[in-house]
């Protein structure tokens, strides 16, 4: 990573898909512009300027001269920054596993997106029940099984990778949503995942960011 590089991350004013990227910046101690786009009448105009019409988008400026490098799609951004911040896997096999687990998280996220975008209240209730009784136990259970077999306590390999940060962020958020006020879903049913979340969130830069980040509903 060049000392002259500057970064800008563009996303809505909530945690959402961009939060693992913000956590990676926090862990690395690297400054960046956290551009937060309002969800108002200006969004269609902004959307038209984005590579795929979606966010997050990362812009990397090499210094005083030269073109900016623009990268879209959250997994691609995570993989790119992992190499910059020494959060990548060290073997081809481990790198492939990192990709596999992040893709699985994207699949899980898609189930939430289907529910969130549904406009039929009857269908929406059925989808929420399916999230709680089918998709949640499936994905939480599979990740719990993976981490329970890890000698290092990390999802892939002997040390922290970008995949741990993605998993800790997303799975903790989804567990809060699918649980209830009286229980801690991860601690009660998926203790090894709970330990992973605690490890990631206690890392110095990440814990500081979590304490100081803007308050948003999700």
TrEMBL record:
SUPFAM superfamilies reported in the protein's UniProt record: GST C-terminal domain-like, Thioredoxin-like
GO molecular function terms attached to this record: glutathione transferase activity
Signal sequence annotation: none
Sorted UniProt keywords: Transferase
Keyword flag Transferase: yes
Source taxon at top rank: Eukaryota
Catalytic activity: RX + glutathione = an S-substituted glutathione + a halide anion + H(+)
Enzyme class: transferase
CDD domains xrefs: GST_C_Sigma_like, GST_N_Sigma_like
GO biological process: glutathione metabolic process
Protein name: glutathione transferase
